[in-house]
């Protein structure tokens, strides 16, 4: 499908604008604050941010990363989230075009952006996102071509059930909790949106990425294996990787193994 450049530009700009809202969710959800009111403001001086100071990326550059009211530094998280969401939206639009699949995966990836940054800072995954995501992902499966409610339901059961078994087994063997319930609900949400075939890929990709990055961080910081590392961002990485390259990588692997995919 050939996508007009102007449409792709609008998609990227839309992703940037939504990214600005995602920053509100990232800051307020862990505090159980409303994401609707009060309007955006500086957390230090309570200066109410005007619309011209809230233009994605551009305002951060014009303000030189400082609050107009008190001059306090603005976290680099804000432009990073906007840029990340804008880039993901553009790539999804180029891949799927103006379709329901694009809208669904845009919603899914935006939720993953929020989850990733919250889990990194607070090591929690809000139920408001994961549980509602399971319901929304399952509901949308009735309308997306190439998807089905059976596929979505199996994805929910396999995603949530597989990590639940891992968590239960680890706790039985060590007597300690090794995986939070947030990760279990997150993988169930991923299964709802992407189907059951995505679940094994996401688990493998996230485990590999988590092992490589986690071990590297522990070596650099000289911490032992008790260092708590959130797993949500790695699951999000595995899900995004599956969306864009999952089927290609699976076919490649099966080809190396001498199997053919039915």
As a percent range, the share of strand residues is under 5%
What is the string of SSEs from the N terminus onward?
HHHHHHHHH
* Helix content range: 55-70%
Low-confidence stretches: none
What is the number of beta strands?
0
Mean pLDDT: 88
Q: Tell me the count of domains.
A: 2
Kindly provide the radius of gyration, computed on alpha-carbon positions and rounded to a whole number of angstroms.
Answer: 20 Å
Helix-strand makeup class: mainly alpha
Distance between the ends: 25 Å
Mass-distribution shape: globular
Q: What's the tally of helices?
A: 9
Sheet with the most strands? none
What does this structure look like?
This protein is an all-alpha fold. The chain has two domains: 1-98, no CATH class; 123-262, no CATH class. It is built from nine helices and no strands. α1 (5-28) runs parallel beside α4, α3 runs antiparallel to α4 (100-122) and α4 crosses α9. The longest helix is centred in the middle third of the chain and has 26 residues, at 149-174. The two termini are 25 Å apart. The model has no long low-confidence stretch (mean pLDDT 88).
């Amino acid at each position: 499908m050939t996508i007009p450049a102007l449409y792709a530009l609008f998609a990227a700009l839309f992703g940037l604008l939504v990214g600005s809202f995602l920053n509100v969710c990232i800051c307020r959800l862990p505090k159980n604050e409303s994401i609707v009111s009060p309007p955006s403001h500086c957390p230090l001086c309570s200066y109410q941010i005007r619309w011209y100071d809230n233009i994605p990326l551009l305002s951060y550059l014009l303000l030189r990363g400082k609050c107009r009211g008190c001059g306090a530094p603005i976290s680099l998280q804000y432009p990073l989230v906007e840029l990340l969401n804008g880039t993901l939206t553009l790539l999804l639009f180029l891949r799927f075009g103006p379709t329901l699949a694009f809208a669904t995966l845009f919603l899914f990836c935006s939720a993953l952006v929020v989850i990733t940054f919250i889990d990194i800072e607070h090591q929690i995954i809000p139920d408001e996102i994961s549980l509602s995501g399971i319901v929304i992902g399952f509901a949308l499966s009735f309308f997306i071509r190439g998807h089905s409610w059976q596929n979505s339901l199996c994805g929910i059961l396999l995603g949530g059930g597989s990590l639940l078994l891992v968590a239960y087994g680890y706790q039985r063997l060590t007597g300690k909790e090794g995986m939070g319930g947030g990760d279990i609900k997150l993988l169930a949400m991923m299964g709802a949106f992407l189907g059951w075939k995505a679940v094994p890929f996401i688990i493998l990709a996230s485990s590999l990425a988590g092992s490589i990055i986690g071990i590297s961080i522990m070596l650099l910081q000289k911490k032992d294996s008790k260092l708590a590392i959130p797993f949500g961002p790695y699951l999000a990485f595995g899900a995004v990787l599956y969306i864009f390259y999952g089927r290609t990588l699976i076919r490649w692997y099966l080809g190396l193994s001498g199997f053919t995919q039915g």
